[in-house]
Design brief:
Blueprint (H helix, E strand, L loop, with lengths): L3 H13 L3 E7 L2 E7 L2 E2 L5 E6 L3 H8 L2 E7 L12 E10 L3 H10 L12 E16 L2 E6 H4 L3 H21 L1 H8 L5 E6 L2 E6 L2 E6 L7 H18 L1
Antiparallel strand pairs: 1-2, 1-5, 3-4, 4-7, 5-6, 6-7, 7-8, 9-10, 10-11
Helix pairs in contact: 6-7
């Protein structure tokens, strides 16, 4: 089983990646497709998929699936890349707030997100396999991987106010933390926040999961101070 360090690395990777491979199957026929995930506040992967695609058709027939995401390799050997294979059951997700969250991380998709054949899907995680590099593998249970429900609820409730405050009163700090000339906070959760300028979106991780809005504030203060010290 995975230790706490491995679980945290897996969560941060899943929060940060913007592309992956979705594996589906129907009537014994497997299919793999490039997809562009985001995560719900509770870490469930979110996918905006065309209803005309093979993977959408297969998910409608067999909702069990897997999502593979990977980071950058640290050496020439691609096997040194950290990666996470998430096993899940897919459901169509009607929540417009979650669609807005997905679009905040994939702003280029505004061009087609409103087309009638595009639907948001939510993957209910049942387990995962982590590989931290060549020869470094661990099984991660859904119970260990997913954040505490009470913390997710607390931060999700406070998120609109946190983002409004940071964007109206602390724009310079957001830009400095993001390493960009300007930036707005477009997402915040128990594991970190998302800062954007145009179509560029930067994921910023906390040192550890937070439990509430006060934890978010403390992490942002820490990041702002670290940025000033570094400059």
């Amino acid at each position: 089983m995975a230790n706490a360090e491995t679980v945290w690395a897996a969560r941060l990777l899943l929060r940060a990646v913007r592309q992956g491979v979705l594996a589906t199957v129907s009537e014994g026929q497997p299919h793999a497709a490039l997809v562009t995930p985001a995560t719900a506040p509770d870490l469930s992967p979110l996918l905006l998929l065309s209803g005309l695609s093979v993977h959408s058709r297969q998910l409608r027939e067999e909702p069990r699936c897997a999502l593979l995401v990977a980071g950058a390799a640290v050496e020439a050997n691609p096997q040194t890349a950290p990666r996470l294979s998430v096993e899940a059951v897919a459901h169509q997700e009607p929540d417009e707030a979650l669609k807005a969250r997905w679009l905040a991380l994939h702003p280029y998709a505004q061009l087609y997100a409103g087309f009638a054949d595009f639907t948001l899907w939510r993957l209910e995680v049942s387990g995962a396999q982590w590989v931290g590099g060549f020869g470094l593998a661990a099984r991660v249970s859904a119970r260990d991987l997913l954040p505490a429900a009470a913390s997710v609820t607390a931060v999700e409730a406070a998120a609109p106010g946190i983002m409004a405050h940071c964007n109206s009163d602390h724009g310079a700090a957001m830009a400095a933390i993001a390493g960009m000339a300007e930036a707005r906070m477009v997402g915040v959760d128990v594991d970190g926040c998302d800062l954007a300028a145009g179509e560029r979106v930067v994921r910023v991780a906390w040192q550890q999961p937070v439990a509430d809005a006060n934890g978010v504030r403390e992490e942002l203060v820490r990041l702002a101070r670290a940025t000033r010290a570094g400059s």
